[in-house]
Amino acid sequence: MKKILVTGGAGYIGSHTVVDLIEHGYEVISVDNYCRSDARMLLGIEAITGKKITNYAIDLCSLTDTRKVFEENPDLVGIIHFAAYKAVGESVEQPLLYFENNLQSLINLLKCVQEFRIPNFVFSSSCTVYGEPEKIPVTEATPLQPATSPYGLTKQTGEQMLEAFVKTNSCSVLLLRYFNPAGAHPTAQIGELPIGRPQNLVPAITQTAIGVIDHLQVHGTDYSTRDGSCIRDFIHVCDLAQAHTQGIQLLEKEGTSNHCKPINLGSGTGMTVLECIHAFEKVSGAKLNWSVGPRRPGDVIAIYANNEKAKTLLGWEARYGIDDIMATAWAWEQRYRSGQTVLGS
Fold first, then answer.
1. 34 a catalytic residue
2. Catalytic residue of the set 56, 85, 151, 336
3. Of 47, 99, 266, 316, which is most buried with the most CB atoms under 10 A?
4. Which residues in the chain come in under a pLDDT of 70?
């Protein structure tokens, strides 16, 4: 089997991608030091796939430790790089933390890609690279505006680093710019597990519904949108995971070097925060306790994707809608809190 390195393999998107890769015949090794994840997520992967995952619990900001992973796995055919800090609000408060962690880890990985001649690299980018776009939906050709947060700036800089890197190295790169991942695996064995109070909307909704959070705060309803709340493009995490597998398959099929392609991954539909709340209440039958608070620094007003390039190049299409996202997220939250999942046991 072809071997793929997934950084952040115990994280939310990483764990779902590991499952999808295994289901498509790949061998996977993971790097995750659990600073923003839970080691038990690997047990959830094992419960779904029947495969035990080898994980290196190292900090990618250490070149020595990172290089050891490559020395012990000389047969790698590709890397999918998720490992990064991702909370917009935290990045506004602690920009240096984000610059150091997100960029130094990428630099060290690329040093190893160069030395060990890894041919394929998929980068976990984000719609935050578009900043506050002038027109929506955004395409890959949409001009990048100034980042609205240090987190977004690390993604813009990471893309620029990769674009420069491939020009002089035998490697091909996909920049997967995804929008708002949400939902959980249909088995409810893995899902989103925020550390501390959730920064993302859907886990904040489910934790409010189950009573972990007293009430949900909507960050502003005075925006120039159809109901005053921010607009986002929510994509089911399993759809997102599948796109990463298809990305690796595309790079292997093309077999060429020195190119770097950005691809949007979104549903192509914008949903407001209030519409998401109403969708959850419809699917779950639960009534949410929510209130309106002030705007949150770093938030973009409205953004959603044009995903035609993903359809054309990857053969990818979103299979799940907002109701599926809410239903699987709620099933995960209930099973996790009740101790029925591997993580909750």
1. no
2. 151
3. 266
4. 344-345
